[in-house]
Specification:
- By secondary structure, the protein is an alpha+beta fold.
- It is built from 13 helices and 28 strands.
- Helix 3 packs antiparallel against helix 13, helix 4 packs antiparallel against helix 5 and helix 4 crosses helix 13.
- The protein is globular, with a radius of gyration of 25 Å.
Length: 600
Amino acid sequence: MTQPIEDYALIGDLMTSGLVGRDGSIDWLCLPRFDSAACFAKLLGEEENGHWRIAPVGAAPDERCTRRAYVDGTLVLESYWETEGGTFKVIDFMPQRDTAPDVVRIVEGLTGESTVRSTLRLRFDYGHVVPWVRRVDGERVAVAGPDSAWFRSEPHVHTWGEHNSTRSEFAVAAGERVAFVLTWHPSHEPRPNPIDPYAALPTSLADWRAWTSQCTYEGPHQEAVIRSLITLKALTYAPTGGIAAAATTSLPEELGGVRNWDYRYCWLRDSTLTLGSLLATGFLDEARAWRAWLLRAVAGDPADLQIMYGIAGERRIPETDLPWLRGYASSAPVRVGNAAVDQLQLDVYGEVIDSLYLARATGLAAEAHAWKLQLALLDFLERNWRRPDEGLWEVRGPRRHFVHSKVMAWVAADRAVRTLEHDPSLPGDIERWRTIRDEVHRDVCENGYDPERKTFTQFYGSTELDAATLLIPRVGFLPPDDPRVVGTVAAVQEELGRSGLVRRYSTEGPSVDGLPGDEGAFLACSFWLADALHLTGREKEARALFERLLAVCNDVGLLAEEYDPVAGRQLGNFPQAFSHVGLVNTALTLARGKAAVAIP
């Protein structure tokens, strides 16, 4: 049965991640990286596509744990089960790895005695390949092509094969513990040294608590902010500093629909908001690592700048379908890779330059080559900002003159001017960029604003609206009290609003994105609306909307990309970095006032 997206919790080791359902089943796990093929793909298919469930013997397929929670300040998940004979909990985590990724599941008896069942069904290559499983010295090893996984327990628990799965049943009394460890490694390499699961638990707890102790945020809803920051950290690929947009692929924006995309990559446009969140909450090392990833990824000919890259900076992300997976809630196709990598999205130039400006303005030591790279990007943008593009929403329809793209071109020119004003010793023609900045500003105000409806539109000549125009006051294009900003906020709230939240744009009629079907309210855009309401003086509404968005978080504080307010379900890839960045930034905005979003 398909669990709601919000029934899942995230575990990870800063190189990859998995999703654990409330039924005790890990239904999604990619090894060894976020963007590797999944060895548990039940999330997008059937049980036969791979999963690992630990639950009481006799638990129904849809039976859920009694309660669950993360250990405070960590990514260690505890799920509690009550049975007729007693209670137990399952502790799920992935230790920060030494040489190989490990998934650790510790079953601990709390009261009485419970009988527990473990069902491990490994399927490599996104649930497509059944491995050959054999017993070696009391452990199980599964091999298929390049993949190998070892499965063991401490103390030893008897296992047997049944229906191409590895099963075990055991009793656990109060105070007793049984640990299972699943370890992946390339099949052509020697088995890595086994970890001690019981020693790994306090180490993992200490690692996460040491990290979260750096957080400087002390405002309202601190727990939700810290959980969002932990989620952003969990989506970070530690070797490079790149942050994946989400842990999953192809979770649908509409149940049963075709809006299913792979988000296990790094988007440049996330850089400004992500960097700002990290810098504002005390995580300078992560901000520095993210900037380093950014500079490596975008190095080269500015004409070759991509909107996204692999987590290590890879440029080729070909998109293919996986026909053997039926899709989450029969939402097909299931896609891996992302063809949007080849799109022209001019806003990313502004976002890259803005993020590097922000890093400099907030105290990160300047990189020697960063300004030269920005000058090259600016030169390209000067020659190309007048072109139509696919825009930040990666529409698969025709190119258009999207207002947000033009606004971000203005941001690029504006940050160049501000940088040269701050440090006149840097090379660059400040008057040239002032002229370009003014030209872009006039162009947007003349062609992207509808004076009759008193709102900025989605693209030049359009009557449609776009929630991205809510960012106009945040980036400094116009002041918050400008009537054009006030009108835009009101229009977006009225026309794109859905049960108090907001959509990206309208999907009714001939949709701008060239795709059939609908989608839910976009959570990042809803946070932008809260910010815009606050900036335009509608403080009470801003706080009410923020509280509404906090209520959308699942029981362990996680957010997907979108939300269906009618069905009361999260939609889209999960957990979504952009949503959690929005939560952090809105919390900062409301806690610190307008200065939180002022341009330095």
